[in-house]
């Protein structure tokens, strides 16, 4: 199990366009239509399964919110940062 990151480490390692919200890091992605968001959520789910690290995914009209935290560690770890980076690389932003 990964160790909890310090406030300073989270600040330094949180990818651009992601923000910290308590024990989570979060980003909301915008899409041109609902189904593009649904497809993105599917892709995030596949990454989550491959990493065995599962975000909260909220699908709304033309946007998808991704929230990451490490439940077992009780906060934000390298696993969350890595997942955010993988999602960013897939999104191509
Ligand atoms: C038993 C435990 O749920 C598993 O080891 C994995 C599954 N996916 C997970 N996902 C997240 N976000 N945090 C975890 O601690 C976690 N643990």
Automatic annotation (TrEMBL):
Listed under catalytic activity are: (4aS,6R)-4a-hydroxy-L-erythro-5,6,7,8-tetrahydrobiopterin = (6R)-L-erythro-6,7-dihydrobiopterin + H2O
Keyword Nucleotide-binding (UniProt)? no
Q: What class of enzyme is it?
A: lyase
Its BP terms in the Gene Ontology are:
tetrahydrobiopterin biosynthetic process
Q: This chain belongs to which protein, by name?
A: 4a-hydroxytetrahydrobiopterin dehydratase
**Lineage of origin:** Archaea, Methanobacteriati, Methanobacteriota, Stenosarchaea group, Halobacteria
- Entry keyword set: Lyase
- What is the top-level taxon of the source organism? Archaea
Give a GO molecular function annotation for the protein. Answer: 4-alpha-hydroxytetrahydrobiopterin dehydratase activity
């Amino acid at each position: 199990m990964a160790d909890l990151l310090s406030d300073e480490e989270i600040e330094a390692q949180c990818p651009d366009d992601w923000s910290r919200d308590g024990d989570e890091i979060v980003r909301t992605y915008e899409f041109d239509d609902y189904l593009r968001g649904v497809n993105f959520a599917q892709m995030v789910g596949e990454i989550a399964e491959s990493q065995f690290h599962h975000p909260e995914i909220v699908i709304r009209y033309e946007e998808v919110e991704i929230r990451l935290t490490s439940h077992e560690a009780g906060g934000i770890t390298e696993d969350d940062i890595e997942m955010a980076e993988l999602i960013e690389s897939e999104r191509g932003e």
